[in-house]
Amino acid sequence: MPFKSQAQRRLFYAKASKGEIPESTVKRWEEHTPKKKLPEHVKESLYLRGIEDALQRLGEKTNRR
Predict the structure, then answer these.
(1) Which residue in 55, 44, 62, 59 sits closest to 7, CA to CA?
(2) Residues whose CB falls within 8 Å of the CB of residue 23, separated by 6 or more in sequence, listed in order
(3) From CA 4, how far away is CA 52, in angstroms rounded?
């Protein structure tokens, strides 16, 4: 899944540095992100809320280990 905005990219890197998500997830998203310039923000939608929910679930799984 590619990053949709710079803000989303920063969020993932911040969560990875805190150990809330695996760094391999960030790396995989970077690999799928086109080399074009991303917008600073995108309009929040159900899609982005779904990503936040998925990250929260992933963080909960990581914390259980």
Answers:
(1) 44
(2) 16
(3) 13
Task: DSSP letter for 39, please.
Answer: P
| 3-55 pLDDT, tens digit each | 989 999 999 999 999 999 999 999 999 999 999 999 998 876 656 677 777 78
Q: Which two tokens stand for residue 59?
A: 């963080």
Considering only CA atoms, give the Rg of the chain.
12
Nearest Cα residue to 58 out of 30, 3, 20, 27: 20
| Cβ pair 21, 52 in contact under 8 A | no
Look-up of token digits 């280990």? 65
Strand, coil or helix: what is 10? helix
pTM: 0.65
